[in-house]
Structure to design on (107 residues):
């Protein structure tokens, strides 16, 4: 009886191993698809993270540009310029500027 059970178990194992080897190309195909799927998921997550980082960088650069523009506009006001050049002894002009008019030439 034990001999029959051993033969039956051995036969079952052989059929199982045979089934695995018969379907090995399909199993390899499934493993390859799984690896491609995981790789694609990682690549897309990396792209999303990079996109978010670049969006944040653009936002920071826009804020810096607006800040510099405001500083330039604030620094070009006449009262600010007078205050900055006060130490060098320059004073604002008291006479208005002259308008230069060119004579028309007749041909």
């Amino acid at each position: 009886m034990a001999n029959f059970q051993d033969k039956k178990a051995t036969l079952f194992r052989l059929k199982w191993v045979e089934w695995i080897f018969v379907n090995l190309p399909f199993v390899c195909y499934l493993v390859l698809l799984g690896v491609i799927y995981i790789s694609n998921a990682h690549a897309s997550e990396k792209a999303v993270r990079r996109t978010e980082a670049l969006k944040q960088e653009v936002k920071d650069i826009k804020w810096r540009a607006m800040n510099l523009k405001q500083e330039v506009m604030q620094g070009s006001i006449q009262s600010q310029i007078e205050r900055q050049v006060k130490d060098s002894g320059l004073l604002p002009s008291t006479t208005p500027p002259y308008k230069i008019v060119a004579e028309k030439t007749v041909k």
In short: The mean pLDDT is 86. The chain has one domain: 2-81.
